């Protein structure tokens, strides 16, 4: 029998009384989810999840990619929340890059059973992510961001070398052609909640990342006590290594990946 949202929310609350808010990914079996919601970050759109979506659908999961407006943090969070509202039953919320902010903020939604971060930001509530990032080496891609007024994008050189460095050049150029510009206001937002403090979390570190420093990724994953894998990949591990990323999501969804 399908669990409705109210019953599922009650189950999560009951479960929370038995578990610490830290280390949940390693101390409790994941809730079996039937839905996956995927959010994209800067310099991309929802199509960046295509390779992962194909694999999730083959595993019998309902997958939906959010079209992040990349305008302000509240508007981007609202876009994720609207998609979560449409889900029927437990849902894994996945974010790449900047959209880790959205996972952290919107992940408190009662339908969300687990969080997955893919080379993603994972701030604490109210934390200044920019200040945190400055305590680690500046990634090369940062120098490639160009602005037209308040609208930002990544230069072609930086996109091919520092964002999608392990993809075939022809494929990377297609992704560059469809990159969605972002608004400066998006970068000033701070999360007001940290869903990873109450939801089990998984993290995929990209060891060859030139967009977010890999050691910063490791720091955030360790701070969350997330179940962590390391993928020898550029920032776009979801495209260059979709099998590894899909397996991590399936694990978070309570599916046997052996």
TrEMBL record:
Residues 1-25 form the signal peptide. Residues 36-245 form the AB hydrolase-1 domain. InterPro entries: AB_hydrolase_1 (IPR000073), AB_hydrolase_fold (IPR029058), Sec-Metab_Biosynth_Hydrolase (IPR052897). The keyword Signal applies. Keywords: Signal. This is AB hydrolase-1 domain-containing protein.
């Amino acid at each position: 029998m399908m669990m409705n949202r109210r019953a599922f929310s009650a189950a999560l609350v009951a479960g929370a009384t038995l578990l610490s808010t830290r280390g949940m990914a390693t101390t409790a079996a994941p809730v079996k989810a039937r839905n996956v919601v995927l959010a994209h970050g800067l310099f991309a759109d929802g199509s960046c999840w295509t390779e992962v979506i194909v694999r999730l659908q083959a595993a019998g999961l309902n997958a939906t990619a959010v079209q992040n407006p990349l305008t302000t943090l509240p508007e981007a969070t609202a876009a994720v929340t609207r998609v979560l509202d449409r889900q029927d039953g437990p849902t894994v919320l996945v974010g790449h890059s900047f959209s880790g902010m959205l996972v952290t903020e919107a992940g408190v939604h009662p339908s969300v059973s687990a969080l997955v971060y893919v080379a993603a930001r994972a701030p604490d509530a109210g934390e200044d992510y920019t200040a945190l990032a400055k305590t680690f080496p500046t990634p090369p891609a940062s120098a490639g961001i160009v602005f037209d007024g308040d609208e930002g994008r990544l230069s072609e050189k930086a996109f091919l070398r520092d964002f999608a460095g392990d993809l075939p050049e022809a494929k990377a150029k297609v992704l560059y052609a469809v990159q969605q510009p972002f608004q400066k206001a998006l970068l000033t937002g701070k999360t007001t909640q940290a869903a990873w403090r109450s939801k089990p979390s998984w993290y995929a570190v990209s060891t060859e990342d030139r967009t977010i420093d890999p050691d910063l990724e490791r720091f955030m994953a360790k701070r969350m006590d997330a179940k962590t894998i390391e993928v020898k990949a550029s920032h776009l591990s979801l495209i260059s290594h979709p099998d590894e990323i899909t397996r991590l999501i399936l694990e978070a969804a309570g599916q046997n990946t052996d």
